[in-house]
Amino acid sequence: MPEIRLKKPLGVIRVHPDHPSPDTIHRAAKVIKNQGVVVFPTQCLYGLAADARDPAAIKKIFHIKKRAETNPLLVLIHSQTDLENLVAHIPDAAQKLMQAFWPGSLTLVFEAKPDVSDLLTAGTGKIGIRIPAHPVARALVKAAGRPVTGTSANLSGTPGCSGIQALPHELIQAVDLVLDAGPLQGGSGSTVLDITCNPFQVFREGRIPSSTIHQVLTP
Fold first, then answer.
1. Domain spans, the chain
2. Residue 7: pLDDT band by 50, 70, 90 thresholds?
3. Considering the entire predicted model, what is its pTM?
4. N or C: where does the chain have the smaller number of CB atoms within 10 Å of the terminal CB?
């Protein structure tokens, strides 16, 4: 992968976990709109947000995480209407699951529209999407006005971080801005469910157990 030049980091900004300052959120959103990368809080772990529509921004995520481009990236959106530009089809079961668990810790894997970047799908033709529940994450996605990446803020192959102090130094130096909302819940992150196949496939068991998902889908 060719070397990618990254901007000088803007530093770490403290942000209230429940009532983030609009000025701080708009500053972070501006970074994303300009191909930057922002560390931000999700419900369990800190994540890396970049413009999911911009291949150059997406490549920065892979570069920062030292992540293979054969590994797809999930995407965060602000509302279900944002699915229109990303997915080819929304199954009835997906409607039930979104009603039950969004915003929240369920990532649904859909069939991607043809114009969705292969960097996000890793050439699978599928894309993982969720609406985050954390107030800072929701505000950031809304202010950015576009889908953003939601991968964890860690180096590939290492555990995710529930606190800024646990972030690798080289990652902090590589990103453009860090939003520090204090310690998060930690844990396994979102459950990832592929709804394009029958029966549905759980790629990763996370905060929402498979048994709970099956209860929602059972008539």
1. 12-217
2. very low
3. 0.92
4. C
